[in-house]
Every structure is written in structure tokens, then in C-alpha cells.
Amino acid sequence: MKHISLITFLILLVVSYGFYQLQYEVELRQDRVAKLENQIAQDKADIKVLEAEWALLSRPKRLQQLSDRFLELAPIDPSQIRSVDELAMREEHLEGAAFAPRQEKAPTGEDETPPALAVAEVPSVGAERLPLVPVFNRGAGQ
Amino acid sequence: MRTITAQDTPIAPGRTLRSVRSRIIFTVMLFGLAFAGLSVRVVDLGLSAEASAWSAARSGAADMLPARADIVDRNGTLLATDLKTISISANPQKVQHSGEAAQQLAQVLGGVDPAVLEHRLSSTSSFAWIKRKVTPEEQHAVNQLGIPGITFRDEIQRLYPQGSLTAHVVGYNSIDNEGLSGLERAFDEELRDRAADNEGPLRLALDMRVQHAMHEELGAAMRQFNAAGAAGIVMDARTSQVVALVSLPDFDPNDPGSAAADRQYMNRASQGVYEMGSTFKTYTMALALEHGVASMDDAYDATHPIQISRFTIRDDHPKARWLNLPEIFMYSSNIGTARIVADAGNGLQKDFMQTLGLLNRPDFELPETGTPMVPENWRNVQSMTVSYGYGIAVSGLQVANSIAALVNGGTLHRPTLLLNPDARDDISRQVISAETSEQVQALMRLVVEKGTGRNADAPGYLVGGKTGTAEKSTYGGYNRDALVTSFVAAFPIDDPQYVVFVMLDEPKGNESTYGFAGAGWTAAPIVRGLVPRIAPLLGVAPSKDDSHPMTRELVRMITPEVRS
Question: What is the CATH number of domain B70-203?
């Protein structure tokens, strides 16, 4: 009988402490949730401000003014636009030469070319060099 | 619940002890159950919706945002958004020295009249606005004054980052965020609902880059020819989605009160209706070819002006001979066009115009959509003038949309500003045959290659189009010096992807045009400047061909000696 009362009392103590802790924890978490929700709302508002600022700074009119001032870009001329089929240096034209190891020097002395040109040249063997066809005008490539 | 009563006492001690023990266990279990129920409830409370209601009550004004959904263009560029701002109000009953306070406030706040402010602050009410939507600097300055009774309120401000570029499409709101014009008004409720349901922005078919190019080219032409106004539309020829819509002069929707003149609010592209002049000859040609009234090699007598009732129909550049269909179109012969429509008959013409949607107010999102002015009686005279674009006034939007139908293979769509319009609203239908459409393409290319529209020829993009020069009607007649010049074009004309409409209101000729102010000199060059700028943006590849296949045949039909 004595034990039962004691046990009951102890259970009561433990349970009430447990409930108190639980309640406390819940309140803490609610606080945290509220803070996070506040933070999210604030961040969302900040993102909106940044997006608006980005839109303001990337207005086409402003970009054009900046481009006119700092860049030497002009509208693309139709002659600067070509389809892939029209490219001269495609794989089939090169007959695998593009993947052959590059030769530092041409095998024959008469075939030597100035270094500035050699950079842009197709790796070639002897006289079977492919001609370079200018595909893009200056400023193209976008 | 059972309790121990006197009745239970005369029982043997062993039994009593067992009985009492079982009762205690029973009671403990009962309490245990009750506590278990309570703990479940506590957990439930901790997790339930009450928690979020509680936190919502605690969080600040950021929750107000946004009241209206954003508006973006087809690439997601922001056109309209809600931002938090501060408004300053006062409780006049708590403001002690209203005169002094008004003076101080007026000093730090721009655009506030101290006298008006003092009147407001000395009222007996408990609320008065001091200034709405102030800058952070102004807020700080007012805060520094430390006047009692002044309060700051969070408010929402609509920002239009693109400024005047979208003034006539997006429109603007009242200070209380109610849509007053443009899409803001048309989608007032929808924008609120979208914001409330978190459905994301309203996505338009517009492309700001194209809109900017149009805005700039039109503005330059307007200045060059000292015009009173200008309008321009770029429309997807296959879907009638509006990619650009510009009306000049315009205003800054961020400060809608700033516009000095009412004409700045006028949307000349979709609201203003104008007698378009010769662009209407395209409809007459399509009518004749579609209904077998005439074929390409039929010729009409354009030797002399036509006298009909009190009108005389004459040509601007008279050839004074018989002209076949391509010639009538490329030289823009009023006489020839009038004779064609006389053959077609007024009933057929009116039906055709109706089919193309030229006689009714178009079903378009903008509240600023004009109703065309059509002849009350559609007799022979009216029929003849309508054939070359007089006596009927329509909006640029209607011209662009109907021309799109004529060149895209013959399907008329509903014009729209939305990227994903409601499919139920689609009214697309075949209005002319694909064969006729190809003939119209060829005729429009002929105008640009050999006719009045040569100044519109943008190399590489195969522009086809038609000029339209109309004298403005004044009281009792037409004013030769007040013109409306327009050019409607499609590119690439052998497979039209976009239709471009440009219009200038009262352009004046200058030295560069030898004094001419006609559409070929003023409106057509806008297209030549615009198309090479927008085609790469719109993904239109340059044409390999330098002409429309059928145009080559038409060129052979032109009488050689007048070929220039």
C-alpha cells in the first residue's frame, strides 16, 4: 500500500516534469518556427527587392547605353550567320586529320609557314593542306 | 467510478486487501489513461494549426507581400512587382503644434504643401495621411524630427522596372493598388488571386528586347519626321501572340500623374483607330484571288480617275494605263483596286472584312482596345473607298492580326498578349486558302522588291509588306498635310514567322526624304531598321533565297518599260 502511494507519487512527479519539459520544448520550437517564418518572409521580400533591382539594372535601354559606351559590339549582320552544314572545317572534310597528332614542323623545308598563320592552320601533311575558308567575319561568333 | 463504501467493510481481511488493491490499481489505471489523453492533447496542440496561427500573428508586415502577382515577359523579365514601402500618417489629436509640425515635415518631405498639411494635422479626426510611399531617407528624416503622433505604416508599392517601355501594355495602378489601365486593369482580380494562391507571375508573350528595339526605332523615326505619335506591333504570324506593342508618346507608369498631355495615355496601337489607306489593298487582293474575282494576269483600266457620286478616285502616282493585279498592288493604284472591288461586289467585300475581324472590336486582353469605325451604308461608293483603306478606320492591332492570317497560310487567330492563353478562347479558323495566302506573300514581296515599299527591304530577311498613306479626315474633307503613314510587313515572306506593323501619326517630310512624307519614305525604313535587330533575337535565320519563288513570276508580268 505504502509502495503504491510512493510509486504513484513518483510517477506523478515524473509525468508532470515530463509534461513541463514537453510544453517548454513546444514553446521553444514555436518561437523558432515563428522566427524562421519571419525570416523567410523577410528573405522573400529582400529577394523581391533584389529582383526588382536586377530588372532595373538590366533594362534593355540601359544595357544598350552601356554596350554603346564600353563594348564594340554591333547587331549581327545576316552574312555573319551560317548553318553548321556550311562550315568548311567539318570532320568529313578533314578526313580525320583534326584528330591526328599535330606536327610541329612541316616535313619539307619549302612548306614552312609563318608562325602567326600556323596557329590557325589545319594540321597538314605535305602539300595536301586544306585551304582555310573564312567563315565568319570579324566580330561574329555569338 | 466505484468508491469504497460502508457496504464493503464486513468482508474478510484477505479479501479486503485484494479488493482494495485491485481498486487502487483500477484508479491508477484510470488516472494513467487520463494523463495519457492529456499528453496526446499537448502534443497535438504543439503540432496543430494553432501554432502557425500564433506565429503568423507575431510576424511582421513582410507577410503582406505581395498583394498582386508579378507580371513577367516571355523570358521571365520582371515588368511589374510589389515592393514594401513606408507611408507616413498621423493622429492629429496627438499632434500638439500642428503649424510647427507641418513646417518641419514639409522641409524634409518633397512635394508636400505645409498649408495643406497643417489643415490636415489640425483636424479633429484621429487619422490623416502625411505622405504615402516615401523613400527610406524621408522615413529616416521624419523619424529624426521626433514629432509625437506621427506613425509609419507598411504599404505596398507597385514597381514597373521597365518604366515607359511597358506603359501601354502593363498599365498602372491607383495609389491603393487597384488596376487603372492596361493589363493591370484587365487582370485586376486575377493578379490578386494569383498572389493569394501563390500561383506565380502572369506571363506575357512580350519580349522586352524586341519591345525595346521597336520602342527605339519608332522613337527615332518620330523625331526624324517630327511626328505627333507612333505605334508599332510585332506579332507571331502563326499564333497571333503579341511580341511587342509600343505606342508613342508614352509615360512612366511609376509616376502616372507625370504625363503632361492626355495624348500620352492614348494607346495608338490597339485603341486608336485610323483610316489606314493602301494597306487595305492587301485585303482587296486577297478577296479577289480567294473568290476568283480576278487572277494575277487580269488587267484593269487605270487610265483615268473614277468619278463616283461626289468623289473622284485618283492615283497618287498615276500610270495612266491598264494595270494587271501585281502592278495595281506594287504601284498602289486606287483606281485599279476600286475596279477590282466593283467586280467583287460590296456584299462579298463586307463579308470578307467581317471574316477577317476588321468590322468588330477585336477580342483582346487590353481594356484599351478600339472599336473600328465602319461605313453605315455599304454601297458602291463606300465599297470602293474601303478597297483602298478610306471610309473605314481600324486599329493597328486589327491590321497586324488580319495580315498574319493572310500570310500564314490562311488561319486567323485571336490576338493575345499572354504566353499561355486559355485554350477555350481560341477562335482560330481558316479564312483564306493556302494557295491564296501564297499569292498574298508573293504580292507583298513584290511591293518591297519593286514597288512602294523598297525602303523596307532588310537584306537577308526577305521582308514582304505593304505601304499605307492616308490623309487625315478633317471636318468636311481630308487634310493633305496631315498624314497617317503605316507599313505592315511579314518576314521571312516565303514562310512568315512574324508580322510587323508600324505607324506614324502626322510625319513631316525632310531633306532625307526629298520632302515626301508618304509611308514608303517614313514608315517603311522603320521596318528595315527593325527587322535585322529583332530577327536574331526571335530566332529567325537569314534567308538563303533573295526572293519569293512566286514573286519571280510576278516580276516577269510587270510591263518592262516602267520597271525602275
Answer: 3.90.1310.10
